[in-house]
């Protein structure tokens, strides 16, 4: 019986670190870590070259569809998307097919998310917003408006 316990402990001691390492490789948390450390994101400008690959085009489509269909700000009071500019994120082996996009759109009302007051919802003022959308393997993982509001979590970011 003691021999079996030692074998189980030895196997667990070997498999647990391997499973943890595999988990960390498969799920990239680098952008979340960089964001929490306050690492600035390199700006996307008109001069930023857009990749011409099918995975980039799919990611761009995912970003646009997410804004049009799932963004509370855009679906409730958005007018239209002005532009979408993106670039591939260099994540090495940890993140292939990772892209970040700046989606500029016009909106009818001030404020963000569920925190908007009745007064803000009734105020009509056209405002341009920029939403940073991160797409990893065709899944939107982050949607930040004007660097102040997290659309997915429905919270203001700490400054």
Please provide a written account of the structure.
Helices cover 38% and strands 26% of the residues. By secondary structure, it is α+β, with helices and mostly antiparallel strands. The chain has a 6-stranded antiparallel β-sheet with strand order 1-2-3-4-5-6. A hairpin with a 4-residue loop joins β5 and β6. It is flat and about 75 Å long. About 13% of the residues have low confidence.
List keywords for this structure.
26% strand; 159 residues; alpha+beta; flat
Briefly say what this structure is:
By secondary structure, the protein is of the alpha+beta class. It has 5 helices and 6 strands, in the order ααααββαββββ.
Q: The biggest beta sheet, please?
A: 6 strands, antiparallel
Number of helices: 5
* Overall residue-averaged pLDDT value: 77
Counting helices, strands and paired strands, the structural category is alpha+beta
Q: H/E series, N to C?
A: HHHHEEHEEEE
How many strand segments? 6
- What is the C-alpha radius of gyration, as a whole number of Å? 21 Å
Widest beta sheet: strand line-up: 1-2-3-4-5-6
Give the percentage of residues in beta strands: 25-35%
* Spans of at least 5 consecutive residues with low confidence: 20-40
- Report helical residue fraction: 25-40%
What is the distance, rounded to the nearest whole angstrom, between the alpha carbons of the first and last residues? 57 Å
* Global shape: flat
Which SSEs are present, and which pair or pack?
Elements: H1 2-26, H2 30-36, H3 54-70, H4 72-77, E1 78-88, E2 98-107, H5 118-122, E3 127-136, E4 139-145, E5 149-150, E6 155-156
Antiparallel strand pairs: 1-2, 2-3, 3-4, 4-5, 5-6
């Amino acid at each position: 019986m003691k021999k079996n316990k030692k074998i189980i402990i030895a196997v667990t001691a070997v498999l647990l670190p391997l499973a943890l390492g595999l988990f960390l490789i498969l799920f990239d948390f680098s952008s979340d870590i960089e964001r929490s450390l306050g690492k600035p994101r390199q700006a996307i400008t008109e001069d930023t070259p857009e990749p011409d690959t099918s995975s980039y085009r799919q990611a761009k489509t995912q970003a646009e569809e997410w804004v049009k269909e799932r963004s509370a700000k855009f679906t409730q009071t958005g007018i239209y998307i002005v532009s979408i500019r993106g670039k591939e994120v260099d994540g090495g082996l940890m993140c292939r097919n990772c892209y970040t996009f700046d989606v500029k759109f016009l909106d009818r009302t001030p404020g963000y998310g569920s925190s908007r007051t009745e007064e803000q919802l009734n105020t009509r003022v056209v405002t341009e917003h920029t939403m940073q959308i991160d797409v990893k393997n065709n899944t939107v993982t982050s949607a930040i408006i004007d660097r102040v509001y997290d659309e997915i979590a429905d919270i203001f970011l700490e400054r």
